[in-house]
From TrEMBL:
UniProt-listed InterPro entries: PBP_domain, Phosphate_ABC_transporter
Keywords annotated in UniProt: Signal
Protein name: Phosphate ABC transporter substrate-binding protein, PhoT family
PANTHER family, alphabetized: PERIPLASMIC PHOSPHATE BINDING COMPONENT OF PHOSPHATE ABC TRANSPORTER (PTHR30570), PHOSPHATE-BINDING PROTEIN PSTS (PTHR30570:SF1)
Matches recorded under SUPFAM superfamilies: Periplasmic binding protein-like II
Annotated organism of origin: Kaistella chaponensis
PBP domain: residues covered: 45-280
Pfam family, one: PBP_like_2
Length: 307
């Protein structure tokens, strides 16, 4: 309510000869209403508030670790993590259903234009970790490696020997992009969920599972250790050279299916979303990434002073 409206109200009150107690009560009431409306417009900030972020199931582990650590350091914050295919997460970002998303593949020109049109702000991807798509077979498989050419041939074969965790999953989208094609042109099998691919691959001795490294990467996690012990991770041969998906090759980006995880936000101010992104890309967040068994994107030099 504006000042002119208040003045008109007071004139009417004077006409009906209301007593001072009633007048004082009304003044306090309207002042409180105005204050409440103003407080409703106050946005969240990096230390308090509630937001929702989205991440593909392939990045669940590192996403959970980062959000849990951030909330532990900022008890007045609540970050709801929604596990959803990255394509659908991007659509939710455009519709302001989520504040931040985790991506691994490059956006298409159409997606970049849609972001520019819908969000109306400059897109600034915030890179925070290096992950990879890894190829696994049962522990007793005779296969010891796979070439990029073999992988391409298998994904064009009616045998459908490559198993992905879902249609339009981040793993499938990324592999298709690396091979210079699109998912709709590839032929493959599906077992829903990265962990389920690992658990069930033993039933299909001639198949090869394609999962995220983050599914197996937690070095001291019992479940991750059990999963690693049931399968064999295949080195990938590219241009005559063999690359294992270890930290050395991922750090150097020489493993052919290394990918960089990054955040995109629709938050135009320095609120909880941007606060979380900054945390994840700075030292404490990068330590969390490292403990998850992934390669931190930002390397911090450690200086030791000897006395």
């Amino acid at each position: 309510m504006g000042f002119l409206e208040l003045a008109e109200l007071f004139t009417k009150l004077d006409r009906v000869k209301m007593n001072y107690k009633q007048l004082f009560f009304l003044i306090c009431f309207f002042a409180l209403m105005i204050t409440c409306k103003k407080s409703d417009r106050i946005p969240d900030d990096p230390h308090q508030g509630t937001i929702t972020i989205s991440a593909d199931e392939s990045f669940r582990s590192v996403s959970e670790a980062l959000t849990e650590r951030y909330m532990a350091l900022n008890p007045k914050t609540k970050i709801n993590l929604v596990i959803k295919k990255e394509d659908l997460g991007f659509l939710d970002l455009l519709e302001n259903k989520v504040r931040v998303i985790v991506m691994s593949r490059e956006l298409t020109n159409e997606e970049k234009e849609a972001y520019k049109l819908k969000i109306d702000m400059k897109m600034e991807p915030a890179k925070f970790a290096a992950d990879a798509v890894v190829f696994v077979v049962p522990k007793n498989s005779t296969r010891e490696s796979i070439t990029v050419e073999e992988l391409s041939n298998e994904l064009n074969s009616d045998q459908k020997n490559i198993i992905f965790d879902a249609t339009n999953s981040s793993n499938l989208n990324f592999v298709a992009q690396k091979l210079g094609t699109i998912p709709n042109k590839l032929k493959f099998s599906i077992i829903n969920g990265n962990k389920n691919v690992v658990k069930e691959i033993g039933q299909y001795p001639n198949k090869i599972g394609a999962i995220s490294l983050n599914t197996l990467s937690r070095p001291y996690d019992k479940e991750s250790e059990q999963l690693r012990n049931t399968i064999k991770i295949l080195p990938v041969i590219s241009k005559g050279k063999t690359f294992e998906p270890n930290m050395k090759n991922i750090k150097a980006m020489t493993y052919p299916f290394t990918r960089v995880l990054y955040f995109i936000t629709n938050e135009a101010y320095y609120g909880l979303g941007n606060g979380f992104i900054r945390f994840s890309c700075q030292q404490i967040g990068q330590i969390v990434v490292e403990k998850e068994g992934l390669q931190p994107y930002t390397i911090f030099n450690r200086e030791v002073q000897m006395r």
